[in-house]
């Protein structure tokens, strides 16, 4: 089922929530990138498996549930608008950074300026948000069907992703559902890993705290 909700009324979900049986998982996914690169096309392709051509210019959060590896997954997908304000260009606002568990940064392989936007946005995320391991990002070069108009090579995309510790895919939302599916599933996997990492870090912190409590007490005895 697809539910269309107003971003303003959407509450920040827990980073990722799972029920006690680990059967259900929520993931907040933010799509970023310049205008007209295919953010809505990717979102709609993932949710409905269809490519409808024109999507309008709207900022929306879509809820989509799916069963993956026997577990129910609820995707909250924020199809964002690129800011018109030149000062905010290349930046990701605080609310979005806080909301997202994972990011899909989209550029068009035939639009170099959109590639530069993704470069700025990934740098901004890495600067502002969290260490890379806890803020999963996938970079997507879209419109692969338009090879004859390509201005950004696959190599450049891959290198950017490598340098910023991100996943990378080149796809065509227009041509196929499969590539889009891989993007979302890979991001989900990275989100799972990030969550496990956070849990592990918390575990180590607790051990360190307990040990310093013990040794601290001894020193004062
Ligand atoms: N050839 C081709 N066209 C695509 C592809 N994906 C999207 N488009 C087209 O690119 C245009 C923009 O797509 P959108 O999905 O609206 O792009 P967007 O990034 O959401 O745009 P904004 O909402 O304005 O920021 C539309 O005309 C789409 O049909 C693709 O893979 N190949």
UniProtKB/TrEMBL annotation:
<dbReference type="InterPro" id="IPR027417">
    <property type="entry name" value="P-loop_NTPase"/>
</dbReference>
<dbReference type="Pfam" id="PF00071">
    <property type="entry name" value="Ras"/>
</dbReference>
<keyword id="KW-0378">Hydrolase</keyword>
<dbReference type="InterPro" id="IPR001806">
    <property type="entry name" value="Small_GTPase"/>
</dbReference>
<dbReference type="InterPro" id="IPR005225">
    <property type="entry name" value="Small_GTP-bd"/>
</dbReference>
<keyword id="KW-0342">GTP-binding</keyword>
<protein>
    <recommendedName>
        <fullName>small monomeric GTPase</fullName>
        <ecNumber>3.6.5.2</ecNumber>
    </recommendedName>
</protein>
<comment type="similarity">
    <text>Belongs to the small GTPase superfamily. Ras family.</text>
</comment>
<dbReference type="GO" id="GO:0005525">
    <property type="term" value="F:GTP binding"/>
</dbReference>
<dbReference type="InterPro" id="IPR051065">
    <property type="entry name" value="Ras-related_GTPase"/>
</dbReference>
<dbReference type="GO" id="GO:0003925">
    <property type="term" value="F:G protein activity"/>
</dbReference>
<keyword id="KW-0547">Nucleotide-binding</keyword>
């Amino acid at each position: 089922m697809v539910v269309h909700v107003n971003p303003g009324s959407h509450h920040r979900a827990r980073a990722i929530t799972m029920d006690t049986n680990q059967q259900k998982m929520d993931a907040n996914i933010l799509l970023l990138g310049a205008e007209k690169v295919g953010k809505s096309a990717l979102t709609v392709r993932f949710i409905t498996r269809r490519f409808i051509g024109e999507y309008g210019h709207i900022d929306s959060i879509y809820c989509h549930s799916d069963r993956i590896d026997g577990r129910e997954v609820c995707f909250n997908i924020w199809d964002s608008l690129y800011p018109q304000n030149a000062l905010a260009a290349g930046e990701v606002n605080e609310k979005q950074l806080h909301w997202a568990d994972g990011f899909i940064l989209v550029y068009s392989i035939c639009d170099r300026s959109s590639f530069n936007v993704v470069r700025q946005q990934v740098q901004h995320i890495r600067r502002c948000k969290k260490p890379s391991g806890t803020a999963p990002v996938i970079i997507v070069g879209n419109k692969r069907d338009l090879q004859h108009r390509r201005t950004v090579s696959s190599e450049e995309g891959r290198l950017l992703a490598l340098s910023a510790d991100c996943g990378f895919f080149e796809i065509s939302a227009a041509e196929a559902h499969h590539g889009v599916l891989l993007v979302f599933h890979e991001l989900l996997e990275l989100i799972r890993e990030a969550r496990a990492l956070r849990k592990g870090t918390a575990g180590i912190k607790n051990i360190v705290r307990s040990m310093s409590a013990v040794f601290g007490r001894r020193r004062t005895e």
